[in-house]
Design a protein that fits this description.
Radius of gyration: 22 Å
Largest sheet: 9 strands, antiparallel
Shape: globular
Helix content: 25-40%
Strand content: 15-25%
Number of domains: 1
Distance between the termini: 73 Å
Structural class: alpha+beta
Number of helices: 7
Length: about 290
């Protein structure tokens, strides 16, 4: 059960819709994804093929029994229809001197592209007396997600392209990842993530995407310009001592799905608009 739940609904007002399709039939299409069946990263069980409904059930289970939890559900209408769907979901459990805080959030495409998650994030702020060892965190991350593409700048980055984790020659083990994580990213390794023109590093795309609004429209240009299909970023910020973790932030982005879902949603919205506003069928008179 959630306590002190704050639920926010975003919907287009009836006055803004001159003609509402009351029974518009949406035929979902599954968008393309960066992640294959054998390479299927998730954050607490939420992956980029998880629907908003399933994600909400997972989030609720993860926060079950916690007090002072705030839930923010953002809903939207599909075009000019009465069809409402969850566009984003955030659950926040505040941190305190003796309490580790946690925030889970995810953004979803429209029902036309199956309402799947394309952005998932988890942020853990550890109470001072509950900060885990950095060695343990790195071990857990690598046990779950495998060998990262590049490590440094407090991050382990997993870059996905063509259904695989990209390798740029750095064969990290737990000890070498621990030694590298608080150093700057190795320039000769990082430059290998750029495209042939020296642009499109997925590391830079992840950082910019984290700072953007999480709608498909806001993230589309970044997704199109990224030199990868998807990325997982794990940031481990040092705690009260350098060997402890004070904050851990996990971010999963499916750039390929963002591009694909935006195209599917755009086509479906155009079809719905044409249905509401059909073109005149009159013919020119005989002259």
């Amino acid at each position: 059960m959630f306590h002190r739940a704050l639920v926010v609904f975003l919907a287009v007002t009836p006055a803004a819709l001159p003609a509402i399709s009351l029974a518009y039939d949406i035929k979902p299409k599954t968008s393309l994804s960066a992640f294959a069946a054998k390479l299927h990263p998730d954050i607490l069980g939420v992956a980029t093929d998880t629907t908003a409904e399933s994600a909400r059930a997972i989030f609720e289970k993860a926060f079950s029994g916690r007090t002072e939890t705030r839930t923010d559900i953002q809903q939207q209408k599909f075009g000019g229809t009465t069809v409402s769907y969850v566009a984003s979901l955030t659950i926040n459990y505040p941190s305190g001197p003796k309490q580790t805080g946690e925030v889970l959030s995810s953004s979803f495409s429209s029902p036309a592209s199956a309402n799947h998650a394309y952005f998932i994030a988890r942020n853990l702020t550890f109470a001072p007396d509950q900060q885990p060892a950095k060695t343990d965190m790195i071990k857990q991350v690598m046990d779950k997600y495998g060998v990262p593409t590049i490590v440094g700048d407090q991050h382990l980055y997993y870059i996905y392209r063509a259904g695989k984790i990209v390798s740029v020659g750095a064969k990290y083990q737990e000890a070498t990842a621990l030694a590298a994580i608080d150093r700057p990213l190795e320039p000769r390794t990082a430059i290998k993530l750029n495209d042939a023109n020296g642009r499109g590093s997925c590391v830079a795309a992840v950082k910019r995407s984290q700072a953007k609004e999480k709608s498909l429209t806001a993230m589309l240009d970044e997704a199109k310009g990224a030199n990868c299909d998807g990325a997982l970023s794990v940031q481990l910020v040092p705690g009260t001592t350098p060997d402890r973790v004070g904050n851990a932030q996990f971010t999963l982005l499916d750039f390929k799905q963002i591009v694909s879902a935006a195209a599917i949603d755009g086509d479906a919205l155009a079809a719905e608009n044409n249905e509401r506003n059909p073109a005149p069928k009159g013919s020119a008179p005989k002259l």
